[in-house]
Amino acid sequence: MKLDRREFLRLAGLGALTSSLARLGFGAPDGGKGECKMAHELPPLPYAYDALEPHYDEATLRLHHDKHHQAYVNGLNAAEEQVQKMLSAGDFAGAKAACKALAFHGSGHILHSIFWTNMKPGGGGEPTGELAKAIAKQFGNFAAFRKLFLATTNAVEGSGWGILAVCPTTHTLAVLQAEKHENLTIWGDEPLLALDVWEHAYYLKYQNKRPEWTQAFMDHLVNWDDVAQRYAAAKK
Ligand code: MN3
Fold first, then answer.
1. How much is the pTM?
2. From ligand 1's centre to the CA of 157, what distance in Å?
3. Where do the DSSP E strands lie in 86-144?
4. Residue 177 pLDDT more than 90?
């Protein structure tokens, strides 16, 4: 059976992925209509490579953004092509295998794109406004949220992420773990704040001391304005 482009994109869930990318504000190639007209691209960093020193070192940032994130973008583009190829050939077992790669690399691309904008030089502190109110309502106060977020993130088994997410229907906040990039997902929850605890994210500077990396992120790097903008956008 030959499928046209729109049909196999829908079958493969690519429409949903490109819509997610567009909603999160970085690079659905077609504005989220579900058709991939061009390849995904690595988003540029919103600051210089050395801008987050000394808390996030230039060498790690260069490798992390230029090599690791680029590899997820390349993997996503390759997986999309492979899914389309397999479905066109009627090879659904092959398509299933390719969809696994698609979920991994697509989720890696999404989370890294959020992560870069979640940091800024001179970050840290506490959120204000609606986000601060939502955090207080959900977690009691900011200190309790911070403790939970750090404990959750530090406890990720192996490679993964700590995530503050919002449910778009109830607007309830949740602290989540992701293993790798795509596992332990709650469908529909939208990540607002993503903290990378793959070793590639911190090992050059912090070695085995993951809690020192996550504390530095919260004390000196986190960009609450960006998190608040994502929260406001998700509520619309
Ligand atoms: Mn990473």
1. 0.87
2. 15
3. none
4. yes
